[in-house]
Design goal:
- The chain is of the alpha/beta class.
- It is built from 8 helices and 15 strands.
- The chain folds into 2 domains: 32 residues; 242 residues, Rossmann fold.
- 39% of the residues are buried.
């Protein structure tokens, strides 16, 4: 083979390698872009939030796993959520085994999780969920499922769960002091954020302000009742429902907030921390 022919062959191989690398990079990016959250602040779950959850979970092919570990009345919580989804009769809808999980129940849950395209946590007490998730393989299995592209959602306690730190419910609402707010590790699916729920109706601003001042790199996200934040790619949030979502940014100066109160139909960039145009 002549030198010119050899050089051309090498360049051809290099081009194919570059092209393959670009295809792999695009594929990897598309996998990351599948991450989606439906975060309900408690109260009524809007039809739009439920419909978006089903759409993101695969429409008529959705396989939804409901987890009621937070609830003191898990069967009632499951029936209430099933009522929300009854307008989608072709959707597969399963109830996770009740806590505590051991033996067969644990194996059944992992099998359900493997087949699910959407996972939704009921309200109640978020600490009950994290007690179950002291089991590290279960905790990791849920996080891996989200990272692989399954849509995750929750209401009330099931929404509080989605950040780390996670509020435990122990607090003094009369002061702005992060030391007076109980926290622990949550599932932490939404990075660089602290989530609160039942936010405006229960006047929980002080506890979120206190935690954000204590953790100024974190974005405070206060979701009111009857309202949901729909998040794509861990970045783009859309508000739906009857009330507001408050975003609290304390990165600029100590004891100084930038507050955005976002209403239904508006969108917010959680990375740039600003309101963006409607989709």
């Amino acid at each position: 083979m002549k030198w010119r022919e050899f050089n051309f062959a090498v360049k051809k191989i290099e081009f194919r390698i570059i092209l393959l690398s670009a295809i792999l990079a695009l594929t990897f990016s598309s996998v990351l872009a599948q991450q989606k959250l439906v975060l309900v602040g408690g109260g009524d779950r809007s039809a739009e939030a439920v419909a978006r959850f089903v759409e993101w979970a695969g429409k008529e092919n959705a396989r939804i796993l409901i987890i009621t570990w937070a609830s003191g009345v898990p069967e009632e919580s499951f029936e209430s959520l099933r009522e929300d989804f009854k307008t989608f009769p072709t959707v597969s809808f399963e109830n996770a085994p009740l806590a505590p999980l051991d033996g067969e129940k644990r194996a059944k849950f992992l099998d359900q999780l493997k087949n699910a395209t959407g996972v939704f946590f009921s309200g109640g007490d978020q600490n009950r969920i994290m007690e179950v998730l002291k089991d590290a393989p279960l905790y990791n299995a849920l996080r891996e499922k989200y990272e692989a592209g399954a849509v995750f959602g929750g209401t009330s306690a099931g929404t509080a769960l989605m950040s780390t730190p996670m509020m435990t419910g122990e607090n003094d609402l009369t002061v702005i002091d992060g030391n007076k707010v109980g926290t622990r590790q949550g599932l932490g699916l939404l990075p660089n954020a602290i989530i609160d729920q039942h936010f405006i109706v229960r006047q929980r601003e002080n506890r979120l302000f206190g935690l954000v001042l204590q953790n100024p790199k974190m974005l405070g996200v206060g979701i009111d009742e009857d309202t949901a934040l729909l998040v794509k790619d861990n970045r783009f949030g859309e508000v739906v429902g009857a009330s507001f979502v408050m975003f609290v940014d304390a990165r600029q100066k100590k004891a100084t907030f930038m507050i955005n109160l976002v209403k239904s139909g508006e969108r917010f960039d959680l990375v740039k921390r600003k309101v963006i145009s409607k989709k």
